[in-house]
Amino acid sequence: MGGLSGITSIALSGLSVDEAALSVTSNNIANVNTPGYSREVVDVAQTTPINVGQITYGTGVTLQSVKSVRDNILAARIADENGQQSQSQSYLNTMNQVQTMFNDDSGTGLQSVLSSFYNSFSSLATNPTSTSMRESVITAAQNLATAFNQDSTSLQSISSSLDQRVTSDVSQVNSLTAQIAQLNAQIGQANAADTADSSSDTAGMLEDQQSQLVQTLSGLLGTQVNQTSNGMITVTTSNGAVLVAGNQSYNLDAQPDPVTGHTQVYSQGINLTSSLSGGDIGGLLQARDQGIAGVQSQLDTLAAGISNSVNTQSAAGYDLSGKAGAALFTAPPADVTGAAANMAVNITDPSQVAAASTADAGDGSNALALANLQSTAMANGQNPIDTYSTLVSDLGNNVSEASTENTAQGLVLTQLRQQQSNECGVSLDEEAVNLIQYQQAYEASARVISTVSNVISTLMQMGGNA
Amino acid sequence: MTIRVNPNLYLESLTELSQTRQAEDTALEQVSTGLRVNNPSDDPSAAAANVGVQAQLANIDQYTTNVTSVSSQMQVANSTLSSAVNLLNQAITYGTQGGDSNLTQANRDTLATQIQSIQSELVSLANTTYQGQYLFAGTANTQPFQTNANGTVSYVGNDGTNSAEISPGTKVQTSLPGSQVFGTGTNNVFTALSQLSATLTSGGDVTTAMANLTSAYNNVSNQQVFYGNAVSNLENTQTYLNNDKVELSTQQNNLVGIDTATAVSNLEQAETTRQAALSAAGQIGQVSLLNYLPAPTA
Question: Most exposed: A429, B5, B106, B172, by fewest CB within 10 Å?
Answer without folding.
Answer: B106
